[in-house]
């Protein structure tokens, strides 16, 4: 995945996009990084994504329920 030893460029764009969010000790002159630091970054990102997905799910569910209640109210109002 990596180019020649002297190069700081990464071939995989997914890895290079997370490079900015890794601790400073994970890139630069020393190519060694503690795996736990990378795992912590991934866990934080995963947690944020999970919260966003849960919030969107609750919001969409609320909208569906509101539309259903509105439709039922309109149907009962027209029925009388």
Short description:
The protein is an all-alpha fold and 80 residues long.
Q: Note the quaternary state here.
A: single chain
The largest pleated sheet is described as: none
Shape: rod-shaped
- Put simply, the count of helices is 2
| Low confidence ranges | none
Query: Which radius of gyration do the C-alpha atoms yield?
Result: 24 Å
Can you give the helix content as a percent range? 55-70%
Residues in β-strands, percent? under 5%
Count of the separate structural domains: 2
Distance between the termini: 70 Å
Provide tags for this entry.
mainly alpha; 2 domains; about 80 residues; 2 helices; rod-shaped; about 65% helix
Can you put this structure into words, describing what you see?
This protein is mainly alpha-helical and 80 residues long. The chain folds into two domains: 1-33, no CATH class; 35-80. It has two helices and no strands. The chain has helices spanning 13-18, 35-79. The protein is rod-shaped, with a radius of gyration of 24 Å. The chain starts with 12 loop residues before the first helix and ends with a helix. The mean pLDDT is 77.
């Amino acid at each position: 995945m990596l180019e020649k030893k002297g190069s700081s460029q990464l071939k995989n764009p997914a890895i290079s996009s997370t490079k900015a969010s890794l601790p400073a000790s994970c890139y630069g002159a020393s190519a060694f990084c503690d795996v736990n630091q990378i795992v912590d970054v991934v866990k934080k990102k995963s947690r944020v994504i999970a919260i966003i997905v849960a919030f969107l799910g609750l919001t969409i569910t609320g909208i569906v329920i509101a539309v259903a209640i509105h439709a039922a109210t309109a149907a009962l109002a027209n029925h009388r």
